[in-house]
Known about the structure:
SH3 type barrels, five-stranded antiparallel beta sheet, two-stranded antiparallel sheet, globular
Amino acid sequence: MLVFKWFHGGDIVGLKVGQLVSSKMGRDCQNKYLVLTLLDDGFVLIANGKQRKVLNPKRKNSKHLVAHLQVATHIAEAVVRGEKVTNQQLRASIEALSELSDQGREEGSSSNG
Length: 113
């Protein structure tokens, strides 16, 4: 699997094709996307199947993204094989991965002060 790494505050952070990310800068702040392509200049191409379609992905500085642990492996494999990925597939994957991300956050938090 393709991995892009950059240094941020002394830590090495990696992004993968198919990984769920959220924007933390710009007018698309907090929108969720999947990584479609890793560019060698610290940028990635991302899409969500709504505002940013597969045929017109957004070029985004990887420093302006929050990487989530979830990866849509079927999307990543299709992209690596050069197969067609649809906007509907992206939307469904983002929705499913977001639910997993939200469940993990709820299970990890405690209200017992």
